[in-house]
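User: Hello! I'm new to structural biology and keep hearing that structure can be predicted from sequence alone. Could you demonstrate with Inner-membrane translocator? Please show me the input and the output so I can see what each looks like.

Assistant: Of course. The first part below is the input, the amino acid sequence of Inner-membrane translocator. The second part is the output, the predicted structure written as tokens.
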Amino acid sequence: MMESYALLMAATLNAGTVLALASLGLLINEKAGIVNLGAEGMMLCAAIAGFAAVVYSGNDWLGFAAGMGAGALLALVFGGLVIWLNANQYATGLAVSLFGTGFSAFVGIGYVQERIPPRPSFAIPYLSDIPWFGPALFRHHPLVYLTALFALGLIWFLYRTRPGLILRSVGENPESAHALGYPVRRIRLVAVVAGGALCGLAGAYISIVYTPLWVEGMVAGKGWIALALTTFATWRPARVLLGAYLFGGVTMLQFHLQGIGVEVPSQVLTMLPYLSTILVLALISRNPQWIRINMPTSIGKPFYPDS
């Protein structure tokens, strides 16, 4: 029984890494005042790009780089449309999501039967041999630990550095930032591309590590859950990380319950992550002042510079 709980913890961290990477990317976007609803499509395009790169190269890190590139490229297109052409952020994000879903399905037809090289086993020496804690915490892909470190680094960047302060000021009051001489549009574009790269890394992680294969639509709504997580976490990186592991645990709970013989309809278990998302958002919405205090003031609003 203890071993099954260790495996559940390990699976939770693995699933939470996907959500954390995508959510942190979207948080960077929203801190700059941009809402990107295209995460699902970007993650799918990144998943096929990363998987294809590993099929041909056999190198995971080249796959991650390809995924980040695909996510950043789609984010660049999205950013150009909403920041310079002032297209509606919500409609454009939905268009990117729909495009990414269809494009990845089309490009991925030839990769459905492909296989990537066997995954190496990752284990931290000595620590991985500790009973329960070893299998649960110390046998993960390095990106699992790097994601947690990145979340801590993002906290430092946003709240302890001048560039982080400028980024937040652009999301709070772009007119004032522009009056002080900061290039608001360029800062927003950099934030959007960085966020897209992180969504791309999340997508590549799914097809390379999480489920090392390619299947149409394999992101399965994780981009939408990541979008909801930023609100759930009230735009705080530490809460995003905790929320990602929470939702990752709910996702993996369905397999754990089935494994220990709990008789629950599979359809109900499959709905758990989405029901949890709706429940959490409903609970948070009961306190709109709390959201209003933490939400970037200019989120989703276009910026028209005077010159």
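User: So the tokens describe the shape?

Assistant: Right, they're a compact way of writing down the 3D structure. Reading them back into a model, for example: Residues 2-111+142-294 form a domain with the ABC transporter involved in vitamin B12 uptake, BtuC fold (CATH 1.10.3470).
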